Fold this protein.
Amino acid sequence: MSQNVVSLSLSSDQIEQVQGALAVLERNLSGLVSLSVEERRELNKMGPKSEMFARKAHDVIAQSPDMMPGSFNLKEFAADLAALDQLRPVVARLVALAQRGEDTEMALGSDIYSAALEGYRFAKLAGKGAALDELRNQASVRFAGQGRRRAAAAGEPT
């Protein structure tokens, strides 16, 4: 195999421990929400400048809570800020881990596909046989129409 971006071997015990750890994460982060596309679109977004404003607003309001109507929930405002501060580093680690997982999945897929192409090329050179015929049939399904696309891109008639 000429390409080997990643070599990974996970034992069944490791997979079991990871599944258990994910279950613990899901249980301990059960308060996380899922928003629909529409909900995401309609929510006010808080970027860095908005966050500085919001934190300053909290400080000002906390110093003079009596200026706010009775329906304003200062405790919830403070709790949301505290939860955001707690959640951010956790989410950052989860996102980094998920990205590494996706990158590893992509690398493994690339290694596998490259090995399959390399094996197919060698099998074609080696000759004929039932296994090669089956592989050729699979390749024809996978690469159907690519010759026409290449010819069109090169300006050749199809």
The mean pLDDT is 90. Residues 48-106 form one domain. The chain is about 70% helix and 0% strand. The first helix runs from residue 12 to 28.
